[in-house]
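thought: fold this chain, then report.
action: predict
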Amino acid sequence: MAVTRPAAVAGRWYPGIADVLAQEVDQYLASATAGGPDPSEWSAVTDLTALVAPHAGLRYSGPVAAYAYRELQGCALDLVVLVGPSHFVEFEGVAVTRADAFETPFGLVTVDEASVTALAAASALVCEHEAAHAREHSIEMQLPFLCRVCPHVPIVPLLLGRQTAETASELGRALAETFAGRRVMFIASTDLSHYNDAPIAAKLDEAVIERVTDIETIELGRHGLIVEHGSRRGLLLPQVAIEWGWTREQFLAHTCEKAGLRHDAWKSGAIIISRFEAEIVGP
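observation:
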């Protein structure tokens, strides 16, 4: 039996009429294109693996989100994985839904049920939680843009409960394992900082960006690495770097080589780099 997740904030957080919504979203995309760098200077869409986009009301988040979503125009994708926070329901782990589609003013957005099932099989933290999805806007606010730039691409909607480093690490491992070799776009729905003035918000945002891009966050001996690009995938366990006396840069280089990539491919931004933790159990 088909189950559709009804739109929770259509008509309030964004226009509930398709034509009006399309006009507003397209205007944001056009403004982002006109106000940004020349299209020839953009990174090629084939290099993209993930985006970060806000989820406030469309009049507030739309002008910013457009700069992210313009990069997806013309991008050939098999799937979009949406990860957002749960604002109304507190729980442990990652919530999926049994819904096979999300309602939008543009029509239904299909949920890839097979991918949801595979992800749940890959991690015990991923489980069904309908109450978490019922009122949540963090995923829903991404759909107007997705419908305009990636129509007909199915989604995997994921909600994080208590946001811990352990949950994030486990989800990253499960995503890398489940979707290796597929043309998948990962979209993190987050407003980063709330209720701050522009200078403070900019500093907080810069701290997040530095944390995401800084290889210093790789802890040798604690973190293993997974490097992916297209159908190529390389994995090295945490203890390998210690046994060989590698630096972080060498650890990344050797993981790239194991994936059949250039040793410096990790610098290009065109690959997925995932960290995981492992424990050795023995006498």
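thought: worth noting. The first strand starts at residue 4 and ends at 5.
final: tokens above.
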